[in-house]
Amino acid sequence: MAYTPATLQLLSPAGELVASEETAEYLPLIEALSDEQLREFHRQMVVMRRFDVEASNLQRQGQLALWIPSVGQEGAQVGSGFAAKAQDHIFPAYREHVIARIRGLDLITIIEMLRGISHGGWDPAKTNNFHLYTLVIGSQALHATGYAMGMQFDGTTATGNPDTDEAVIVYFGDGATSQGDVSEALVFAASYQTPQVFFLQNNHWAISVPVTRQSRTPLYLRAAGFGIPSIQIDGNDVLASYAVTAANLDAARSGEGPRFIEALTYRMGAHTTSDDPTKYREPGELEFWTANDPIIRFENYLRAQGADDAFFAEIAQEGEDLAADVRRRTLALEAPPADKVFRNVYSEPHPLVQAQERWLADYEASFEGGQS
């Protein structure tokens, strides 16, 4: 499945704005962006792609247990990530690295999780409402819907002030739409008219299962069956991702109920570093999506707006600097203390946990040198 007649594009593959009846309501949102904001979109896409490549290299060199690439999906993530307001809550899946950076999460936190030396948690209150990665496919849709219902109970949404009213955006992939959790989340969201946006990154592959095997119809049409307004966009168009997400979040926060966005994009690499996509993908498919690369498309647009070679060289160097910093910090990571696994299990000391901690200490001491 590539683009369909329903796919909304604001920026053509050649990098030109699309003026049409369908885009008319969204173009003012693009016109309101400053040159600085537009260039920041590009900066984040380019720099984070370089980070992503470096993290994959680190995994191949034995420094990480696993890496989850997002190469090719930068347009969908950057546009929607910047569309969210500071008070909004973001519920990611496990591939939203660039959104994590936009919200202020230190990327080494993700590295630590996939190196296997942390429990994988961070405090959303310290990451500008960016919630935890969720490896259980689709479960975050329920978490997000429950949180959005809580906003209604707390009265922090639909007060008539778009600068303070809160909304939720939840990310998931095409494979997650086959999980019951997502359907249940859609039921409750529609029933309670929650202030949230469901953002589906359709990257066309649920590991080795193509989206055409999962659904006979475009996935955005499923939401209509639950009574949720939906739209399909070109996920490799960062401007469409921004404008459509911003408009839908504002509708949700104003009391108009949930919205559903299907962003058509493509996973350029493997599902994770434990996967080999050459076993199940045709070369022609990759060629099509490479020609629709979100970064190349937006670079063409910015060059037409006056961005020069010096700007793009600066961004490329920033990407190299970030990659070098991440590599240095990764190689400097040390194994956590053994007692870390026992912390925060209970609020008060617990005899069973204490006994398990003593057992582990004795077990470690039984090896030569005191370590296994």
Briefly say what this structure is.
Residues 43-307 form the Dehydrogenase E1 component domain. By secondary structure, the protein is of the alpha/beta class. It has helices at 27-31, 35-60, 74-83, 97-102, 108-115, 139-154, 180-192, 211-214, 220-225, 238-256, 283-291, 294-304, 309-331, 351-365, and strands at residues 89-91, 168-173, 196-202, 205-206, 209-210, 230-234, 259-264.
Structural notes for this entry:
- By secondary structure, the protein is α/β, with parallel strands linked by helices.
- It has 2 domains: about 25-330, Thiamin diphosphate (ThDP)-binding fold, Pyr/PP domains (Rossmann fold, 3-Layer(aba) Sandwich), CATH 3.40.50; about 340-370, no CATH class.
- About 45% of the residues lie in helices and about 10% in strands.
- The protein has helices spanning about 25-30, 35-60, 75-85, 95-100, 110-115, 140-155, 180-190, 210-215, 220-225, 240-255, 285-290, 295-305, 310-330, 350-365, and strands at about 90, 170-175, 195-200, 205, 210, 230-235, 260-265.
- The strands form 2 sheets. Strands 1-2-3-7-6 form a 5-stranded parallel sheet, sandwiched between helices. Strands 4-5 form a two-stranded antiparallel sheet.
- Helix 2 (about 35-60) runs antiparallel to helix 12 (about 295-305) and helix 6 packs parallel to helix 7.
- The longest helix has 26 residues, at about 35-60.
- The chain is globular and about 75 Å long.
- The model has no long low-confidence stretch (mean pLDDT about 95).
- This is 2-oxoisovalerate dehydrogenase subunit alpha.
- It comes from Antiquaquibacter soli.
- InterPro entries: Alpha-ketoacid_DH_E1_comp, DH_E1, THDP-binding.
- Belongs to the BCKDHA family.
